[in-house]
Amino acid sequence: QLQLAESGGGLVQPGGSLRLSCQVSGGSRNVMGWFREIPGKEREFVAAINRGSTYSEYSDSVKGRFAISRDNAKNTVDLQMNNLKPEDTAVYFCAARIDHSNNWAHWGQGTQVTVSS
Questions:
Q1: With bands split at pLDDT 50, 70 and 90, how would you rate the model's confidence at 100?
Q2: CA torsion, points 93, 10, 17, 13, in degrees to nearest 10?
Q3: Per the CB 3.0–4.6 Å rule, which of 6, 38, 75, 105 could disulfide with 24?
Q4: Among candidates 80, 90, 84, which has minimal Cα distance to 21?
Q5: What is the pLDDT of residue 101?
Q6: Which of 7, 4, 10, 2 is nearest to 115 (CA)?
Q7: Average per-residue pLDDT for the chain
C-alpha cells in the first residue's frame, strides 16, 4: 500500500523560504502533488508533477514562488517555497493520484507551515 510522509514544515518569517519533502514508500504513482488546508477552509491544490518531470502545474496563488520537483531514484517529491506570505500558513499535504484518473487517493499526514513575524 502506498504511504506518504511529509517533512520540512515549520515557522518562517514573511519573505523567507522553506522546503517540504515527501517520502513515498510501497510503490509509486505517475502524478504526485501538494495540497494545503487552512482551518475552516477546503483543502486546496498547490502543485503537481508527473514522473518524468515533463509536466508541472501550480495554483495561481503560488505560481512564481513555489517549485515542485521529484527524485524518482529516492522516491521523493519536494516543494520549494520562496517569498512566503502569511496567507501561505496552512497544513501542507503530499498526495498521489491514481494513474489515468483524477482521483487523489493517497495522502500523507500533513506538515504545518506557519509564516509569521
A1: confident
A2: 130
A3: 75
A4: 80
A5: 86
A6: 10
A7: 96
- What letter represents residue 23's amino acid? Q
Decide if 18 contacts 89 (C-beta within 8 A). no
In this prediction, residue 35 carries a pLDDT of 98
Side chain identity, residue 26: G
CB 101 within 8 A of CB 40: no
